[in-house]
Amino acid sequence: VLQKWVNREISNFDYLIQLNTMAGRTYNDLAQYPVFPWILRDYTSEELDLNNPAVFRDLSKPIGVVNEKNAKAVKEKYNFEDPLGIIDKFHYGTHYSNAAGVMHYLIRVEPFTTLHIQLQSGRFDCADRQFHSIPATWQALMDNPNDVKELIPEFFYFPEFLENQNGFNLGQLQISKEVVNDVVLPKWAHSPEDFIYKHRRALESEYVSAHLHEWIDLIFGYKQRGPAAVEALNVFY
């Protein structure tokens, strides 16, 4: 599979799906759901220029420290010693992929709506914590080193998850009073289908093809644990 990918006989998307499968990740287990990277950092421009390296996220860094400002807080957390010596050191107390995160992204489509309601003791979580905007979700990642969610494969092929086709009442945001309905898209996307089309093109772009292995090292490779993980600020609780 690696050789096929290097020879460009399979796409970046296919290669990531195969890696997830080999790693034991599956659509049948929300706790081991396939994980995909955030690949863009530009969610505000009117047009998306895939020839400009500045629109892409730095794939060599864990999502928690893509914003350099967060690195200091992350290092401080790692240097904290557990007085009882029970807990191993870590940079992040949460994880880049978990069941709650999958339900967070897929809340508008069943069976994830029902699963989310069950998780929240029979009701929807408060509107401000819902997945309501792609630009706002990215900004929250940049501002908060404790939020380290990567993406799920649906961001590259499934426009329906961005629409509230079932008309669920997801509440309204506290400050702006905006009703949470369809997911707010980046300015450069004119519809959910347009977002998926451009996002998938970004995944298959030259820049991502040249740097995807750096992210794979963090999630599936030698930077998952040990000294390489510590150096890469990539140790999870």
Report Rg.
18 Å
How many DSSP-defined strands? 0
The rough form would be described as globular
Q: Give the percentage of residues in beta strands.
A: under 5%
Topology-level CATH name: Neurobeachin, Chain: A, domain 1
Oligomeric state of this protein: single chain
How many separate domains?
A: 1
Helix content: 25-40%
Q: Summarize the biggest pleated sheet.
A: none
CATH class: Mainly Alpha
Organism: Haliaeetus albicilla
Domain BEACH: 1-237
InterPro entries: BEACH_dom, BEACH_dom_sf, BEACH_Domain
Keywords: Repeat, WD repeat
What can you tell me about this protein's structure?
- The protein is an all-alpha fold and 237 residues long.
- It has a single domain (1-41, 71-236), classed as Neurobeachin, Chain: A, domain 1, CATH 1.10.1540.10.
- The protein contains nine helices and no strands.
- The protein has helices at 2-6, 12-22, 71-79, 99-105, 112-119, 134-143, 192-203, 206-219, 226-231.
- The longest helix has 14 residues, at 206-219.
- The radius of gyration is 18 Å and the shape is globular.
- The protein starts with a helix and ends in a 6-residue tail after the last helix.
